[in-house]
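From the pipeline queue, job 12 of 40. The input is one protein chain; the requested action is below.

Action: predict structure.
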Amino acid sequence: MTGPTAVSETLYTSLANQLPSFLSNALLQCKRLPSLPAVALNVLEITRTSDATLSDYARAIEHDPALTARVMSVANSVHYLRAAQPPHTCFEATQRMGLDVTLATVLSFCLFENDHSARGRQHFWRRAITSAVAASYLAQQLCPHQAGSVFTAALLQDIGILALQTAYPNDAERLYGTEQASHGHTQQVEKRYFGCDHALIGAWLLAKWGAHDDLIRAIQRSHEGLETDNPSVLCLRVSGALADAWLSADPAQALAGVMRQLRTLATADEWALAGLLAHLEYTLPPLMETLGLSQPVSIDSVRLLQEAQQLLYEHTLSLSARLDAQQKARDALLDDYAQLEQRSRIDPLTQLANRAWLEEQLRERFHLCLSTKRTMSVVFIDLDHFKVLNDRFGHQAGDEVLARFGKMLASLVRVGDLAGRYGGEEFLVILPDENAEGAKRFAERITRRLQERPMARIEQEPLYVSVSIGVACLTDGGFGNERELIDAADQSMYFIKRSGRGGVSVYGQ
């Protein structure tokens, strides 16, 4: 990590540890991952200083001739020709454009110099600019000494999307190609697909660049709720919702939703939405054009606010009741569906996954491991002499052994593992991201637990059972599909059966 203010190794490590391993590997191996030059990091550092002047920004920018030329070019564009003389220095250029436009120009040039015209980039950058302008205006009302840092955080709050688009170009259109999808929906899709959302990835990327800790933490928590006592954090979080409303296909309806949220805040009367919307209407078109972005539909801020207020007035009394009723009905349906779906996946005797669910999950995880170059192990378990046990003590005793073994097995697996009854007295455990040695240790814990605890009591006498276990790891053989992986574990288990039962065998060892 490099930069004018290198982030502590502890914070970077903490963020890296929160990323799923397959995702962090993909990001680190991506040679086209966005990066910021030292001059841009210096500019970000200056935004932390409440008494920073335009001269400070100009001096930092002048260290990069190409960036200086870009700033001078923007300052000489048609939107800034009101001055009698063109600017001759970087300071004069920044003075003419103002802080917000200067920061947007610097980060646009550094991050999107050759690539912001793509469809996904256009929507990403339009939202970023709209959020930043809104956040800066709000900060001027609530925390004026932090306006520069708030503008920067809002501008970069979705930088994780850019990283994901770059690292997973084949999935970018499906994940981000629908501009009208809500930002909240996008986060949910990211969490299902990647195991985390772009806010965490953005914070990790900034830490990798060497940005300062405050900016990194602001990005990481930028998409959380509005319940905060920190005015700069609140400005940042509200800015995203306002940007989504401004860019929505139905801005009045979306803005009414934002206004309902703002009404719950103690500072609700300080927001002055009329002034904010007028500021967006006046500021965004020239700024978008300056940065080479296509123009969204023109919005009349006065009419927009009136429509949103009317919608809010019309629906305040009835909408909450209807939404509550609909939500309760939906929750009930989802709960019923979840219970039905859960029952369809569970073996009723052992309360573990049934064979169908095991095979479906193993098939999905097998192909995921192949595509992401991750590993996985399976543990195949067979209760020894189970037929003899049934014949001698009856099927009721056999069922009790199976049920207690299932409960014991469930207590040993980790979150993310999947244990199930494969059939009869056979069980299967899927261990994602586990190598053969780790899977063997897990299997040995099973055998030790069985030595310590009886699985039933017959006429008050404890009944102990043993198991034969086979282990197979995806990376230890050229398996073409998940069925071959199970067969390998099954073969290892039968090796133990033939060798006297009661032990663990690892495929290939």
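Job complete. The radius of gyration is 30 Å.
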